[in-house]
Amino acid sequence: MLVRRATYDDLDRMKELFACARAYMKKSGNPTQWKDDRPSISIVVNDIAKNNSYVIEDDDRIVATFACIKGIEPTYLDIDGKWLNDDEYVTIHRVASDGSRKGIFNEIIKYCGKFNRDIRIDTHKDNKTMIHLIEKNGFRYCGIIIVDDGTPRLAYQKLCRKY
């Protein structure tokens, strides 16, 4: 599998991947995390413009997308709990896959770990698949954060720095 920066030419395929992810979430008991309008195309376009958006290709076909954002995540400034540390980190957001390949989340973690920073991520309490993947990959639960639409998310951190 190949991880590369997303381009505007990838937007149509990324929309398809988000639709696949929304359908999967609804089917697996998580109908409210993304609803029908999340992630918004404007935020995805902004991710691409800031070089924070990525796609994963397998046999020259885009099978997944995610955002890996360096720097402070504003919604993480207020947490009901405590982060593991205050070191630099990257945040993983907007993970979506068409479900055709296993190991997508592992590829994302491996890629984001290259930035020599800790990794933070959040997810909805009903997203059992993502919670399983997050915990399986060594993230530790840190508390509850509130995202921009006012809803709570479970927040996790993985220590990845090379000291």
What would your notes on this structure say?
This protein has 163 residues and is an alpha+beta fold. A hairpin with a 2-residue loop joins strand 2 and strand 3 (61-70). It has helices at residues 11-27, 41-49, 104-113, 128-136; strands at 2-5, 53-58, 61-70, 80-81, 89-97, 118-123, 140-146, 152-158. The chain starts with a strand and ends in a 5-residue tail after the last strand. The protein has an eight-stranded mixed beta sheet. It is built from four helices and eight strands, in the order E-H-H-E-E-E-E-H-E-H-E-E. Helices cover 28% and strands 31% of the residues. The chain has one domain: Gcn5-related N-acetyltransferase (GNAT) (Aminopeptidase), CATH 3.40.630. The radius of gyration is 15 Å and the shape is globular.
Number of helices: 4
Structural class from helices and strands?
alpha+beta
Distance between the termini: 29 Å
Radius of gyration of CA atoms, rounded to a whole number? 15 Å
Give the quaternary arrangement of the chains: single chain
Number of strands: 8
Q: At CATH's second level, what is the architecture?
A: 3-Layer(aba) Sandwich
What is the topology, as strand order, of the major beta sheet?
A: 1-2-3-5-6-8-7-4
Q: Mind telling me the CATH class?
A: Alpha Beta
Compute the average pLDDT.
Answer: 94
